[in-house]
Write a structure and sequence with these properties.
The structure is a single chain. Helix content is 28%, strand content 22%. The protein is α+β, with helices and mostly antiparallel strands and 767 residues long. Strands 3-5-1-12-9-10-11 form a 7-stranded mixed beta sheet, with helices on both faces. A 5-stranded mixed beta sheet has the order 7-15-14-13-8, with helices on both faces. Helix 9 runs parallel beside helix 17 (723-744). The protein starts with 19 loop residues before the first helix and ends with a helix.
Length: 767
């Protein structure tokens, strides 16, 4: 049998990450690793109450303490005391919703536990903390609004009394008349209500920042872990400090995970810059883990209801959805946009001709909510896939066959959904079939019997998903040929551990005839990299790679034109191999070093390939669990993923992204629980109380692809960074629901299905 050789580099090559050697040997350089001479240290005084009027006492005494250099309160930063919301929506009534004013430092009212009251700078962290403890805060406690549904009830305390309601916004889309007609004609209607639990992202590296100011140039430098510094620079400059963006440089060193949370501009960043300017030397702030729980944007937190109309054959004919999206105490940077994007994906892979969805934003006295891995799409698909399983059960149908009846047919693609999403390519039945075969779905009953014999409940669950990601736009890639024959890529996407240097590098190396270590990537510096859209929405490879490829081709063309003159041959007779430009079929050659050295200026090429539409990765997750009814503990014992990611750039990197996303979603489904009490205290503010999945909570994933290249992306790539987080949670919870319903009569359970929650559900159902 003929074997196709795997390419060393280029598209499809399983290249190991070049970044890993430094990371696993402790040679990474994160923000806190940077030791800046003369830097002072800052801490933030935060509110211990969820809703309170306050005054600060003893500030002058704290300022006089040993080592204290500066204390900033709201009164000290007038004119720079506003953090904007960048996502303002058009509501159903045609108006744009009201946006509350969010202060960098609260003037007289705190609206969640962790809201910032003062910024203290001292010679050492210990001195700053001592001064913080010297400040007395006189609180007038106000009853808080806690709970997504409770905040909308009559008589609930108002987070913003001047607004007159805890409803932040009300949006919707679809055809309401068609939906109502479909429900009138329905043979059966399935209803469900699910809670999508609030999450804390918990990247391995908490946030940190260093602020610097150069009095001679009048320029600021902010060093911090980001998901892209250009947007952060512009927001700080235009909306907070009121300076020209060119007067701020944002530098991003290595970043220990982002997941959406490090995309945003937090108050510590402008405060460090303000303090650095006033003091005349750098100011550093380092976040503690509990501060991350208390102040960084949370994710998810939806309460959703849905109804599905079915015909007599079990075909979906109508869908009605209402999402209550907890926004927290303020509208965070992109917060309102998360449910807006999410509800557009509600129909999933199904041909549902009559759909109507609404979303209501809700103010509560809690940490604001914004994008977390998947950003709205996991919430929407979780609702749809829990609903699909319940409908299949009520119709007495196999969950897989029930889904097939309503899949968008291959022949109908490209297909525009009732909510305006245009799925370009795919074969949805194909990846479902492959996943079922891989997990041996037809013999599940045998494994179920084996588990039962051990006194365990076994369940199987599946989910099919589609995601909108790599949104329309482009990302400029610039390549420079260095004098030593190596190549430098400058690009404005920002790696947070995904392996961008490897992925981009393998394509550049293939085109330029280089080794991977001869390709350097420069990112995370707004002075060196002219523009950048950052990393988010699974955009870096689908949006960045076509530009990298185009820039590589342009640079190769320039190199060949120069070499052709030196070698006195036609451009078409040249090839680039091993750092040489060679005449095909001869021993004539000229090195890239010679080509670079022959030019007075650096030989470079910049390209920006634009994309007009999203990519739509899709796939199937199938999960088997075992539940111990005596303890309530759930073990994931079998897990298969089959995805359509279009063209695979690097299968090793791809598998890592899918495993990581699925692991986070399993953690949400079975472990993570953000808990506020009725007074607004965050009870789960540390790893002692907040269970993130450990290694033994996660399965060995069986991952493969069933790819159909995208037609909206120049290289056929579909985004992959968030897909695992979309497909996994409903698959796990459908498996848990199957096991509990069949063995214990439990009709419904929400995330997280912790041992206590599962055990309690079993006891309640059997009592």
């Amino acid at each position: 049998m003929n074997q196709v050789a795997t390419p060393k580099f280029g598209i499809g090559a399983p290249v190991r990450r070049k970044e890993d050697a430094a990371f696993i040997s402790g040679k990474g350089h994160y923000t806190d690793d940077l030791k800046v001479a003369g830097a002072a240290h800052a801490v933030v005084l935060r509110s211990p109450l969820a809703f309170a009027k306050f005054t600060l006492e003893g500030v002058d005494d704290a300022r006089a303490m040993d080592g204290v250099q500066l204390i900033l309160t709201a009164a000290d930063i007038e004119g720079t005391n506003s953090i904007p919301c960048k996502a303002v929506l058009r509501q159903l009534d045609g108006t744009k919703h009201w946006v509350p004013h969010r202060e960098v430092l609260c003037t007289d009212t705190a609206r969640f536990v962790g809201d910032a009251l003062a910024f203290i700078v001292a010679d050492t962290v210990e001195q700053a903390r001592a001064a913080m403890e010297m400040i007395e805060v006189d609180f007038e406690d106000v009853d808080p609004a806690i709970g997504t549904e409770a905040a909308l009830e009559g008589g609930a305390p108002l987070v913003w009394p001047e607004h007159g309601s805890n409803e932040a916004f009300h949006i919707g889309m679809g055809n309401k008349d068609a939906m109502e007609e479909a429900f009138q004609e329905a043979h059966h209607v399935t209803k469900i209500k699910v809670i999508n639990n609030r999450l804390v992202s918990n990247a391995i590296e908490p946030r940190a920042c260093i602020g610097e100011y150069d009095g001679e140039s009048g320029r600021y430098t902010l060093t911090t872990g980001t998901q892209g510094g250009h947007g952060m620079r512009d927001l700080i400059a235009k909306n907070i400090l009121n300076v020209d963006p060119k007067d701020i440089r944002v530098v991003t060193p290595d970043v220990g995970g982002g997941f959406g949370t490090k995309m945003f501009t937090y108050l510590e960043y402008p405060l460090c810059l303000i303090a650095a300017k006033r003091l005349g030397h750098p100011v550093k702030w380092l976040q503690e883990r509990t501060e991350h729980f208390m102040s960084d944007a949370h994710g998810r937190d939806n309460v959703s209801t849905a109804e599905l109309a079915l015909d007599e054959n079990g075909k979906m004919i109508g869908l009605k959805v209402h999402v209550l999206a907890n926004m927290g105490a303020y509208l965070h940077e992109f917060g309102p946009g998360i449910p807006q994007v999410g509800i557009t994906m509600t129909p999933g892979l199904y041909d549902i001709p009559a759909t109507w969805v609404e979303a209501t934003g809700v103010y509560t006295n809690t940490v604001p909510v914004d994008a977390f891995r998947g950003a709205g799409r996991p919430e929407a698909l979780y609702l749809m896939e829990r609903l699909a399983d319940k409908a299949a059960h009520e119709m007495g149908m196999d969950p897989a066959e029930f889904r097939r009846k309503s899949f968008i047919p291959d022949a109908a693609l490209p297909y525009t959904t009732a909510l305006g999403r245009m799925y370009d390519t795919g074969s949805f039945g194909a990846h479902l079939t492959k996943a079922l075969d891989e997990i041996h779905y037809s013999t599940f009953a045998e494994r179920e019997a084996e588990s039962s014999a051990k006194g365990l409940y076994r369940g199987v669950g599946l989910s099919t998903y589609v995601e909108a990601c790599a949104f329309a736009g482009g990302e400029e890639a610039k390549l420079e040929l260095n004098k030593n024959g190596s190549v430098t890529l400058l690009i404005g996407t920002q790696s947070n551990g995904q392996g961008h240097a490897t992925a981009y590098g393998q394509v550049i190396a293939e085109h330029l005839g280089l080794q991977l270590d001869q390709v350097e990537m420069v990112q995370g510096d707004t002075d060196r990299v002219a523009t950048g859209g950052g990393t988010g929405g699974s955009r870096s490879i689908p949006i960045g790679m076509p530009s990298v490829k185009a820039a590589s081709e342009t640079l190769v063309k320039k190199i060949k034109e120069i070499a052709s003159e030196k070698l006195e041959v036609g451009v078409g007779d040249l090839t680039l191999e091993d750092g040489q430009v060679r005449v095909v079929g001869t021993d004539q050659q000229v090195s890239l070093v010679d080509v670079a050295g022959s030019q007075p200026d650096t030989l470079s090429a910049a390209e920006k390939v634009m994309q007009d539409e999203c990519t739509y990765p899709n796939g199937t997750h199938v999960c088997e669990v075992e539940i111990d009814p005596e303890t309530g503990k759930t073990d994931v014992v079998n897990y298969v993923i089959v995805d359509d990611f279009g063209v695979t750039v690097n299968p090793m990197l791809l598998a890592g992204q899918v495993h990581g996303g699925a692991g986070q979603a399993i953690s949400q489904a079975l472990c993570e629980n953000t808990v506020y009490d009725e007074t607004g205290q965050l009870l789960s503010a540390s790893f002692m109380d907040y269970h993130v999945a450990r290694a033994d909570d996660l399965p060995n994933f069986d991952f493969s692809t069933s790819n159909v290249p995208s037609t909206t992306n120049a290289m056929g790539i579909k985004g992959a960074g968030e897909a695992g987080s979309i497909g996994a949670a409903p698959a796990v919870m459908n498996a848990v629901q199957y096991a509990l319903r069949k063995n214990a009569g439990v009709e419904h359970i929400d995330m997280p299905a912790t041992p206590v929650a599962v055990w309690t559900a079993i006891q309640d159902a059997q009592s």
